[in-house]
Design a protein that fits this description.
With 119 residues, the chain is mainly β. 0% of the residues lie in helices and 61% in strands. The protein is elongated and about 50 Å long. The termini are far apart.
Length: 119
């Protein structure tokens, strides 16, 4: 069994910054692509940023130039540095990862962390 646990959410004023972290824990697994998604009230969950094991990244147009995704493969962690935050960035942010176990491959989600940006 593998768990993804996010941290770093909170309340911040517009223009401020937050750094989200996601830690993967378990036994005998390797991680492929990791990503951050978000879901605002009344809206569908959307991809914010993704990063492959090799470090190739992609971003939603709405966050390009403001957010940066990174990972530490040795620590099984992924990060999301969020700068110049806007009220429309308010959402629950979820970590997602492709996890490879000895006998299977599964996509996992974290429980989410709330980010609230006040105007």
């Amino acid at each position: 069994q593998v768990q993804l646990v996010e941290s770093g959410g909170g309340l911040v004023q517009a223009g401020g910054s937050l750094r989200l972290s996601c830690a993967a824990s378990g036994r005998r697994f390797t991680i492929g692509t990791m990503s951050w998604h978000r879901q605002a009230p009344g809206k569908q969950r959307e991809l914010v940023a993704g990063i492959t094991f090799a470090g190739n990244t992609n971003y939603a147009d709405s966050v390009k130039g403001r957010f940066a995704i990174s990972r530490d493969n040795a620590k099984n962690m992924v990060y999301l540095q969020m700068n110049s935050l806007k009220p429309e960035d308010t959402a629950v942010y979820y970590c997602n990862a492709d996890i490879f176990l000895p006998a299977s491959a599964t996509n996992y989600w974290g429980q989410g962390t709330q980010v609230t940006v006040s105007s």
